[in-house]
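Slide 14.
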Amino acid sequence: MFLSFAAHSPYDTSTIPSHLIDSRKTESDSSTSLIMAIIEGIEGNQYPQGTEGYDGVKSQYATSTYEGAHNLNPALIVQPKTKEDIAKVLMYAKRKKIAVAIRTGGHQYDGASSTGAPNIQLDLRHTFRSPGDRAVFERDGKTYARTSVSWNLGEFNDWLTENNVFVPHGQCVSVNLGGHVQTGGKIYLSSITSASPLSLYSCLWSSHDRFRRGQSDKVGDGARFGQMIRSFGLLGDHVSSLEIVDAKGRSQEITKETDPDLYWAFLGGSPGNLGVLTHLTIQTYRNQDHRGSRGLKALYFYRAETLKRLMDIVVEMSDDEDFPRNYDLCVNVLSSDSRILSSTPGLETWAAREHRELYGQDGRLVWPRAIVLYAQWIPAETGDVCDMAWFDQMKEGADSILVDPAFERPASQLMGEWILRSEREFDHPYIKRTYSTRSRTLGRDGWASWFVGRIDNMIREENNGCWVVGQAQCVGGKNSMLARNADNGTSYNWRDTAMCCNMDCFHTDEAEGRAKDWQKINDIQAIGHNGIFSKEDRRQLWGSYGNWDLDAMWNCYYDDRAKYEKLQRIRRAVDPDGTLTPNPFAVKRADWSLGYLISRLVKFWKRIIGGPA
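Slide 15: predicted structure.
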């Protein structure tokens, strides 16, 4: 027997729980060497383990942290050119009794879009990028966009802006659409810095064409909540159809009407484990129907009292269940580290004029600890009026206003202002935490003071081998479209969330213990029965941490057991051979044992006769 997930040797099952072992036999003792060979008939590129180019292609966001622990080393990486290539890979894997991981961007924090030998990774980053892979069209008086999963969010937003339409989506430029939509189309405002010299400038100052001239397209941050989440909900809330290649190699289109269960499961259920998503069609919003949109992007040099003042605004908004849906707000705080080249245009001019003290003895600009705020108002209905005093309270004390709410902007262009043009936050391993809560008493409970204290505890000391990224965003309220879209046929979890918070710590190898101790205290004090932030442990599929056996941790990622068991049954139906189970971070397929089938029949019969199920 051998495992079909990445974390262990395929021939060593002695330490693995029996329910995680895929009890399928290899065709021969030489199966591993067979997997290392390329697959015949594939038009796209193939990278067997150990060949030239393999290491660069396999690299993704989690490589810096989990390459060894989670074995992010597939035996073969295939970059398909067509749906036919995808089908051939799936059929090959089925014959060889191995599994396939699906990557579109590669930003899941634990590396769940990768796998280990003898399994295969399908890399779709370059597969569907022809002019025919996306189109904007009108139908029944509404505007739709059909697009492939191979475009990143920067490219996606540029294209929507060219067509004067928009949808809610995330902000990390090199996140791709495939995993993004399957995990909710959620992105917090990601961090605003990197150890690479141009990253901060590219996040805050660059226009799109400057980015294209100066930045690389490496993998970046994972999918997080978007700046329009209260105003318009999730990207996945706007999907009208999904085009997939299923585990049997068949191409099909799924809608809420044609296959409501699979449509439901794809949008929030078990990303990458239900089929290979290639294209999606989305209902969009037109700029002309939302005139008067405004936004604020403000920069503050770090001071604990400044962070506390801004966090109080976020908390007040989050605790007010009646807050209008038009407003979205996120506050970010980050450690100092970036050394920005003195030749960087725009930023260099501003810094030289306003802040000569930022220059070191070598004449280079050294970026300090900072707070970055994003605020937005978009009219949802005719007659909506913006309260400019809401923006004014945040403009007060800002060291630089990068986007001014005094000027109206098309909503699609405003979305482009939030695109973060960085590769990743810091070029170090990380220990990340994404917390969410439904609490409406954060102000009374003193959470803002706790958050500022924990951030200051780590950020105050320079050169400690740790770099912090803290973020907080109000996402809820009874007017928020995150909550109001709860019964729209998707399976996304934690729709009742009021506030989300990230507390990420990047570290050197020597400072790993310090980072772990800091996060341990955060976990103990923030989450649980006595937690100051949330009484429940509510995690995101894109931002997983700790034990990555999803079946063992299901209650941290799913609303209830009934939802999880429904996903298990759908997983069993669409992936009967485990071909799409490349690692333990997947909904466990239901057990089709005789006892299980009898129990399902009994429940079904009780529903028919009207008795308790």
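Speaker note: Residues 604 and 613 are 8 Å apart (CA to CA).
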